Amino acid sequence: MFARTGVASMRRVLAAKPAFTSWRSLFIQTLETPNENALKFLPSTKILGDGQTKEFLSGREAACSPLAVKLFTVDGVRSVMYGPDFITVEKKSGDWNILKPEIFAILTEYLNNGTPIISEDVDLHELEINDDDDDVVAMIKELIFTRIRPAIQDDGGDIEFVEFKEDTGTVYLRLKGACRSCDSSSVTLKNGIESMLKHYIEEVESVEPIEEEVEEEEPEPQFEAAQLNPVARGPPAL
Questions:
Q1: Where is the Scaffold protein Nfu/NifU N-terminal domain positioned along the sequence (predicted)?
Q2: Whole-number Å distance between alpha carbons of 187 and 175
């Protein structure tokens, strides 16, 4: 995560050496993120269009993407986010040394078969300046798009503009992907994003996060054999 203003200071140089896995003509690079529970996978192919992202916080949400559904079958996966050229996988438990081979196998098999990654009718997150945005909102969005979002995506995350409250000068944002659950997200918001927006836009007084809870998958109901097979229980007692 970045903690100081300015594009150069916001971009973090990853110290760890990237790992590569190949399958036929597909190469997948993995990069660590500031969030130890999230890894960024960079296949040698496009995932979404430029500027587009899509995050799934549960297997139910991922119904529009067979690849994401498959990734959620890996025990320990908490969320999946697609970017233009990367996929961020967040874990809730488990060791990456155990999880990575299974994730690699799913990605390589799926991305090599040419099947669409996501349904065409699904809304994707794109940061756009609308005709009805006032000057302040337009400036906020432009700064996010040109100066902040690239650094966030470098770290395997994304940022979504929610709203600007003119009466309080508060900007509400939603962090996604690796940045959503990162321990340093509060530092990112206050020392990085808030400082930059306040520096360039005098109407901005503060930046606050909109948190989105991860939906915990309910386990499938378990039934005893006697419940599933009434004959096994024998006749009712008289």
A1: 28-114
A2: 12
Does the structure show a pLDDT above 50 at 94?
Answer: yes
Domain harbouring 179, CATH code: 3.30.300.130
* Beta-strand runs (E) in the chain: 19-23, 26-32, 38-43, 54-56, 77-82, 87-91, 157-165, 170-177, 206-209
Q: What's the pLDDT band for 131 if we cut at 50, 70, 90?
A: confident
Asked whether residue 103 falls in the same domain as residue 174, the answer is: no
Same domain, 105 and 62: yes
pLDDT at 212: 67
Q: What is the pTM of this model?
A: 0.76
Cα 64 to Cα 9, 80, 126, 152: the distances in Å are: 37, 13, 18, 25
Q: What is the CATH number of the domain that holds 94?
A: 3.30.1370.70
Domain that holds residue 164: 135-209
Position 188 in a domain: yes
Among 24, 36, 25, 34, residue whose Cα is nearest residue 3 = 34
Which pLDDT does position 216 carry in this prediction?
Answer: 56
Residue 140 within a domain:
yes
Q: What pLDDT, on a 0 to 100 scale, did the predictor assign at position 51? A: 86
Residue 121 has pLDDT above 90, yes or no: no
